Amino acid sequence: MKAANKGFVIKTGTIEQAFELYLKIPEFKNPYKIEVLQKRFIAKHLILVAYHKDAPVAFKIGYALNEDVFYSWLGGVLPKYRNLKIASQLIIEQENWAKLQHFSSIEVKTRNCFKGMLKLLIAHDYLIKSVEPKSSTIENRIIFSKKL
After folding, report:
1. CA distance linking residue 18 with residue 97, whole number of Å
2. 115, 141, 27, 147: CA torsion to nearest 10
């Protein structure tokens, strides 16, 4: 898998590449250990990494919830590379892969505090499926779904 846009290239990556980027995303204040990420990949999974001039700058990882639903779990773009549509390209690549794997939908969970992600999901025609209330409204989890 390889997609190029505005000098960026998206390729399938490794858990180590994604984990290295994950630790550099400032919004992830209490990051998981790499072992937690690895446990999620027992099922069919996809790890995408976006590169700019051979340097990794963004990632998106997900895995099968079941034979019909792919779960887009974690992703992020280094702050210096935001607003360049890299996250949009990663979403498109993930959706295309999921279609080829015969998934019927993709689910994503985010939080109210991640406004950029909320806007991005809505822009890509994801619909709110449910909300998991938390003690603080800003921390509420919003589950989105998109039919493929």
Report:
1. 18
2. -70
Token output for 25: 């995303």
Long-range (24+ apart) CB contacts under 8 A made by 115-119 are: 116/82, 116/87, 117/87, 118/142
* Residue type at 55 in one-letter notation: A
pLDDT digits over 27-47, tens only? 888 888 888 778 777 778 999
For the question of whether the overall pTM of this predicted structure is more than 0.85, the answer is: yes
- Widest pairwise Cα distance in the chain: 43
Evaluate whether 105 touches 147 at the Cβ level (below 8 Å). Answer: yes
The full set of domains in the chain, from first to last, is 2-106 (3.40.630.30)
CA distance 115 to 122: 11
